[in-house]
């Protein structure tokens, strides 16, 4: 886990008593704090303590006590596996990466420990890359010095073999390195457990005895710039710090797993240290490393000390070199730089961030709650209700970034991923009553080709666009979604009117971005509701921006910028097909009429909805309902059933509602439908229906 703090104040008094610290640093425990705030505060305070400790502002005993107190105070957050409140959820490091690997069946219980996280393949790959680099950059003599001085070879960055500190010298080194930021994580490796916390602090007496000497010796032993991994800091903050720090820590080695460490080398040179603090004082977001790595991992650890040291050695092992970034990380950084509007920290998890808000209304401070940028691998992020697992978002530098997205504004990608990409429950063909011809056609021309692109080649190739037209509430959206679900495609759903009105001046870019993201997520279905407002016939009053959006859309639809192998289907839906201009109409080759549901379909809708309710309707009554609902759309039928379902409640005395048991509510009866028919009327006029019929006969592809 990472910690980030904007400005670190260095305590002014050289000796600070525990009580003073407790007084000033435990004020945040009021009951009004949210878990997120507490988690943030927790990190910030931990940092503060560790800085004070590292600067000898407080004693080791004091630090250990404070850490223990914090662990106790915030154990609810730290230990919690709750996706909302658990501190793990705020992690943006290796743990997050690891969490992305989980699926529901894992019954994941914060079982990640420092060790098993590093066993994950994705983690090892990254570690290996860093290790290789270090090996190639570390002079053999450096390694010898380390070995000679009692530091396990494996503890030296870049040296592959792992070992646990066990020798006296190693212990001394660790104890002494209390002064060193790089030792920090061990102390707080398991803040959730006071036991582990205590035991992870080197024995006080020994530490006190050995501190000055070993501190110095460490500084001699460790190559200049030997840095700790900020396990608790935000990636962006760390990243930016990294840039700032590079000047001061010329020869520092950045040990951050994600190559974003900003922690300076802890050298004997007070000049260097001052330079470091100087930066910190100037507002640099410098990240020390004494914060907990995996709060809950202590539970899993059999030997706390071993765990502590293993955390140390692992981080050493994964250390990188300053300034090194993989190409994909560089790309990510570049993308973030381009996105000047975005807050400093927002982009990290923004693509996978809180849903449906584009981050607006969602405050993400420097410690903003982390939401994994990628879905679980089973795609069940939303309770198993998802057509297709979402592909990886491009904002997490630890994940591959699609080259195609590099020219797209991140905020647009975010919007598309969160607002337009649909993550709702899957839809089956059986969920759509009636419209048999349309369903059969769609299966044949769209779903099968998407499933078997190898067979549906050449003339059999799928169309790029289809049009569903008909009265409102007849299931066009349902069909669009069903296509996506049944063909294993990602479903993007957008209203064309929002393209033209919501993003004034940006609609054109939005169209381009939408197709680009869809291309990255293919097979994909782009459902455009009210497509008539996007593709309406050109007139004198047509606005320039509307014209540009339309042109861009047609270009994208034509696939001018796509390869022939792209599997993207545009499904347009409209209630006003007559307003679509010829150029667009021609491109939407299959124009399918989605009419009002026939009697059999209406029966299907009623039966299906009532089967989920406590209902006393018999066959005959259902037939009567179907008969009386002639001219109703699917949406009207749904509304009718909703209204009828309220009948039993309405018949209750007002006083009963507070006390009645659910099973005492009478079943929905025919009389409730009779009442419902008095308020629910068909929403489509026969005149409107004529228009659809006429247009269908002229341009439709039905029989
Ligand atoms: N054929 C159908 N089978 C089952 N339910 C239907 C059907 N048609 C409509 N519904 C019900 O009506 C609701 C609205 O349907 P949907 O949004 O798909 O209609 P639409 O044709 O896209 O409407 P609009 O043109 O107004 O966007 C659905 O969620 C569903 O409850």
Residue fraction in strands: under 5%
Domain count: 3
Strand order of the largest sheet: 2-3-4-1-5
Query: Which segments are poorly predicted (pLDDT under 50) over 5 or more consecutive residues?
Result: 1-18, 26-30, 87-111, 137-323, 338-399
- Helical residues, percent: 40-55%
Q: What's the helix count?
A: 29
End-to-end Cα distance, whole Å, is 62 Å
Mean pLDDT: 61
The profile of the biggest β sheet is: 5 strands, parallel
Structural class of the secondary structure composition? mainly alpha
Integer-rounded radius of gyration? 31 Å
- Seen as an oligomer or otherwise, the chain set is single chain
Describe this protein's structure.
With 703 residues, the protein is mainly alpha-helical. The chain has three domains: 18-317, no CATH class; 429-593, P-loop containing nucleotide triphosphate hydrolases (Rossmann fold, 3-Layer(aba) Sandwich); 599-683, Helicase, Ruva Protein, domain 3 (Orthogonal Bundle). It has 29 helices and five strands. It has helices spanning 18-25, 35-54, 60-73, 75-79, 94-99, 114-119, 121-137, 140-148, 168-176, 184-187, 194-200, 204-221, 235-248, 270-281, 304-317, 327-338, 410-420, 436-451, 476-486, 496-501, 507-520, 544-558, 582-587, 599-610, 619-628, 634-645, 647-650, 670-679, 686-699; strands spanning 465-469, 490-495, 524-529, 568-574, 590-593. It has a five-stranded parallel β-sheet with strand order 2-3-4-1-5, sandwiched between helices. Helix 3 (60-73) runs antiparallel to helix 11 (194-200), helix 18 (436-451) runs parallel beside helix 19 (476-486) and helix 26 (634-645) packs across helix 28. The model is unreliable at 1-18, 26-30, 87-111, 137-323 and 338-399 (pLDDT under 50). The structure holds adenosine-5'-triphosphate (ATP). The site of adenosine-5'-triphosphate has 20 residues, from helix 19, helix 24 and helix 26. One of its GO terms (cellular component) is nucleus.
């Amino acid at each position: 886990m990472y910690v980030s703090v904007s400005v670190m104040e260095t305590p002014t008094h050289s000796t600070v008593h525990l009580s003073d610290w407790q007084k000033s640093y435990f004020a945040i425990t009021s009951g009004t704090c949210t878990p997120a705030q507490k988690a943030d505060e927790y990190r910030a305070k931990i940092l503060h303590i560790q800085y004070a400790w590292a600067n000898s502002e407080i004693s080791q005993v004091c630090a250990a006590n404070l850490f223990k107190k914090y662990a106790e105070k915030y154990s609810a957050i730290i230990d919690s596996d709750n996706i909302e409140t658990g501190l793990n959820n705020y992690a943006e490091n290796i743990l997050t990466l690891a969490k992305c690997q989980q699926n529901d069946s894992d019954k994941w219980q914060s079982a990640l420990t420092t060790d098993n996280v590093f066993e994950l393949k994705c983690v090892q790959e990254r570690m290996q890359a860093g290790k290789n680099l270090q090996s190639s950059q570390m002079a053999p003599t450096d390694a010898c010095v380390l070995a000679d001085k009692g530091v396990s070879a494996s503890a030296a960055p870049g040296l592959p073999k792992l070992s646990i500190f066990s020798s006296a010298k190693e212990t001394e080194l660790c104890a002494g390195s209390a002064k060193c930021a790089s030792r920090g994580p061990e102390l707080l490796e398991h803040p959730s457990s006071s036991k582990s916390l205590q035991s992870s602090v080197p024995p006080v007496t020994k530490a006190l005895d050995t501190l000055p000497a070993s501190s110095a010796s460490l500084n001699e032993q460790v190559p200049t710039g030997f840095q700790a991994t900020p396990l608790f800091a935000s990636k962006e903050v760390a990243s930016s710090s990294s840039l700032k720090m590079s000047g001061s820590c010329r020869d520092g080695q950045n040990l951050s797993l994600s190559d974003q460490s900003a922690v300076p080398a802890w050298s004997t040179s007070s000049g260097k240290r001052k330079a470091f603090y100087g930066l910190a004082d100037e507002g640099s977001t410098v990240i020390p490393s004494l914060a907990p790595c995996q709060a809950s991992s202590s539970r899993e650890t059999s030997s706390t000390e071993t765990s502590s040291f293993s955390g140390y050695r692992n981080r050493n092992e994964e250390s990188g070199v300053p300034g090194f970034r993989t190409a994909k990380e560089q790309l990510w950084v570049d993308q973030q730089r381009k996105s000047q509007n975005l807050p400093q920290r927002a982009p990290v998890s923004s693509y996978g961030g809180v849903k449906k808000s584009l981050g607006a209304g969602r405050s993400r401070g420097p410690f903003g709650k982390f939401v994994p940028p990628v879905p679980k691998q089973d795609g069940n992020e939303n309770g198993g209700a998802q057509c297709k697992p979402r592909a990886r978002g491009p904002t997490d530098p630890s994940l591959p970034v699609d080259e195609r997205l590099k020219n797209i504004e991140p905020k647009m990608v975010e919007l598309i991923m969160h607002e337009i990409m649909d993550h709702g429950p899957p839809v089956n063909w059986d969920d759509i009553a009636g419209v048999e011809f349309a369903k059969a056609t769609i299966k044949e021309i769209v779903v099968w080709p998407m499933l078997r692109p190898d067979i549906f080649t050449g003339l059999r190739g799928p169309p790029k666009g289809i049009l569903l037209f008909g009265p409102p509430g007849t299931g066009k959206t349902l069909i669009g979604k069903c296509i996506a679900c049944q063909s294993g495609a990602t479903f993007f759903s957008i209203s064309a009117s929002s393209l033209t009105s919501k993003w004034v001046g940006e609609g054109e870019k939005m169209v381009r971005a939408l197709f680009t993201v869809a291309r990255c997520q293919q097979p994909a279905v782009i459902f455009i509701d009210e497509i008539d407002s996007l593709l309406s016939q050109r007139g004198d009053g047509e606005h320039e921006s509307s014209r540009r959006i339309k042109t861009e859309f047609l270009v994208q639809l034509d696939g001018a910028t796509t390869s022939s192998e792209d599997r993207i289907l545009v499904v347009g839906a409209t209630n006003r097909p007559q307003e679509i201009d010829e150029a667009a109409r021609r491109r939407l080759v299959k124009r399918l009429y989605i009419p009002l549901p026939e009697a059999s379909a209406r029966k299907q809708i009623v039966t299906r909805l009532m089967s989920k309710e406590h209902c006393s309707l018999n066959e005959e009554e259902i037939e009567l309902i179907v008969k009386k609902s002639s001219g109703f759309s699917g949406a009207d039928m749904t509304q009718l059933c909703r209204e009828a379902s309220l009948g039993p409640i309405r018949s209750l005395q007002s006083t009963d509602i507070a006390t009645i048991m659910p099973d005492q509510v009478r079943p929905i009866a025919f009389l409730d439908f009779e009442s419902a028919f008095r308020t629910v009327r068909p929403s489509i006029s026969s005149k409107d229906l004529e228009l659809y019929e006429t247009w269908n006969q002229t341009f439709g592809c039905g029989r």
